[in-house]
Design goal:
This protein is of the alpha+beta class and 183 residues long. 17% of the residues lie in helices and 50% in strands.
């Protein structure tokens, strides 16, 4: 049996199509690698780091195992920052305090490095290590933007997803723009 020997492709059109497919595959691979690096950076967030807070007013509600922070609330954990008009911090008290969830309302912004997300409401679930934002969500990373109705960030896996906005002209759709570097 003779070994398989590929034939030379002589048609310029076929060569161009194959070359374009190869370039597309390489670009897609690079894009996926970039997304994986970004996901690893988000997943690298230390959800066990201490949580620091500041607000104009703090109310401790012992019987409900929660703290209500209001007025220019700022919450920091490692390099993650959340700001809002009002937050409720739910905790468990089994000998030592353990934060379970932070619910924020009123112009919520979550920032990390050059990334920021804004929305009407945010919930940071410490048990699941998930941040969910809803209501006119706007995600910015450098020059790129995404707009929608709900953003979910899984801090363990680094997977983020955004669902379409409710109501308005683009009901049910995610909109945005990606910046393109100059060559």
């Amino acid at each position: 049996m003779m070994p398989y020997k590929p034939r030379e492709i002589r048609s310029p059109l076929v060569r161009t199509v194959l070359r374009s497919g190869m370039v597309g595959f390489v670009l897609a691979s690079c894009s996926i690698a970039g997304l994986q690096l970004h996901a690893q950076a988000i997943a690298g967030h230390n959800s066990n780091a201490p949580v620091n807070y500041a607000a104009n007013r703090i109310e401790l509600q012992d019987r409900q195992d929660r703290v209500v922070l209001s007025g220019n609330v700022q919450i920091d954990q490692a390099n993650l920052r959340m700001t809002a008009a009002r937050t409720i911090v739910d905790y468990s008290d089994t000998g030592s305090l353990s934060i379970q969830r932070i619910s924020a309302t009123g112009g919520v912004t979550v920032t990390r490095g050059n990334e920021s997300a804004r929305g009407d409401v945010a919930v940071y679930d410490f048990n699941r290590r998930v941040i969910t934002m809803t209501g006119d969500v706007r995600l910015r990373r450098g020059g790129d933007t995404l707009n929608g109705g709900r953003l979910t960030i899984d801090l363990r896996s680094g997977l983020s997803s955004i669902d379409g906005a409710e109501g308005g002209g683009d009901a049910g759709r995610v909109t945005g723009s990606f910046s393109v570097p100059e060559n």
